[in-house]
Specification:
Length: about 90
């Protein structure tokens, strides 16, 4: 994912904010998404080891699960419209 350092920081902050709102066991998230523990951490922190697909997959997953809980996800400033990264929903 080609993001500037500042955009990576912003995206990570927003992902972690929604992760906190979600409040789910990390193991459940990993199982639902097919992530390892390291993949989840890398994606939440938007490291160079993650992919755009994983970032969008985690974002969409958390948004869906937060809404299922009757809560509202925190907004994203950068991850608004996914027009490039396709994936199969596993949840």
């Amino acid at each position: 994912m080609s993001l500037s350092v500042e955009k990576k920081k912003t995206t990570s902050r927003e992902l972690r904010r929604n992760y906190k709102i979600l409040g789910m066991d990390p193991q459940l998230i990993q199982n639902d998404l097919g992530f390892t523990e390291q993949m989840l951490l890398d994606t939440l922190n938007v490291t160079s080891s993650t992919t755009g697909v994983n970032i969008w997959k985690l974002r969409d997953y958390m948004n869906d699960k937060i809404k299922e809980q009757g809560k509202k996800p925190a907004p994203y400033t950068i991850l608004k419209y996914n027009i490039r990264h396709r994936y199969k929903k596993t949840w």
